[in-house]
Amino acid sequence: MNKILVIDYNTGNVDSVVKALKLYENDVVFSFEKKDLDSARKIILPGQGSYDQAIDELQKKNLYEEIIKKSTQENIPIMGICLGMQILSSYGYENNKKTKGLNIIPGHVKKMDENPYPLPNVGWSEVKIDKQDIIFDEIDNNQDFYFIHSYKFVPDDNNCILSTSKYNSEFVSMLKKEKNYGIQFHPEKSLKKGLKILQNFLKIK
């Protein structure tokens, strides 16, 4: 078990994640193969796209149950980025329907407030650290990170919240349950401080 596995489930914004991880790890694999999942010591769920389509792709590739097992039974650290964060939830409400998520971090995903600024939220927003964690090692509070999204994660347990940000209203920008992290912004597009967050995740045992 020595691979860093970036899950291939037909979503956007993958190449930059893989390239960023390869700055710190040699054995980074982009795959949906079960053999790669079985040998992964950490899993990254990247992506931009819609909640329902992402879950559908995981099920088609027979990854849905396997990813849940890696988290719940093997305690493998998982990081979800943007859409990858959102599908860690219990349910998502996108495209006018309710879709069951991975339920690794209980909660739901709903559309953000649309006033006074239009959606999506695209650009740099401040990340306010609410709870210290190893993921923030050498990261200062109130730094700007790059976002692009129209939906937000609402956790069942507010103790999961690591940081918040604001666009029209406050939303969760990072959360954690056990060894599982959700990041709403794109660390791979957030310069040195974003890369540092990826590096900190790779150090987690």
Description:
The chain is of the alpha/beta class. It has a single domain (about 5-205), classed as Rossmann fold, CATH 3.40.50.880. It is built from six helices and 13 strands. The protein has helices at about 15-20, 35-40, 50-60, 65-70, 85, 190-205, and strands at about 5, 30, 40-45, 80, 90-95, 95-100, 105-110, 120-130, 145-150, 150-155, 160-165, 170-175, 180-185. The strands form two sheets. A nine-stranded mixed sheet has the order 2-1-3-4-13-12-11-8-9. Strands 6-5-7-10 form a four-stranded mixed sheet, with helices on one face. A hairpin with a 1-residue loop joins strand 11 (about 160-165) and strand 12. The chain is globular.
CATH architecture: 3-Layer(aba) Sandwich
**Which consecutive residue ranges, at least 5 long each, have pLDDT under 50?**
none
First-to-last CA distance:
12 Å
User: Tell me about the biggest sheet?
Assistant: 9 strands, mixed
Q: What is the averaged pLDDT score?
A: 96
What strand order characterises the main sheet? Answer: 2-1-3-4-13-12-11-8-9
Corresponding CATH superfamily? Class I glutamine amidotransferase (GATase) domain
Shape: globular
Specify the structural class.
alpha/beta
- Under CATH at level 1, the class stands as Alpha Beta
Helix content: 10-25%
Strand content: 35-45%
Compute the gyration radius: what is it?
16 Å
Q: Which fold does the CATH topology refer to?
A: Rossmann fold
Quaternary structure state of the chains depicted = single chain
Number of helices: 6
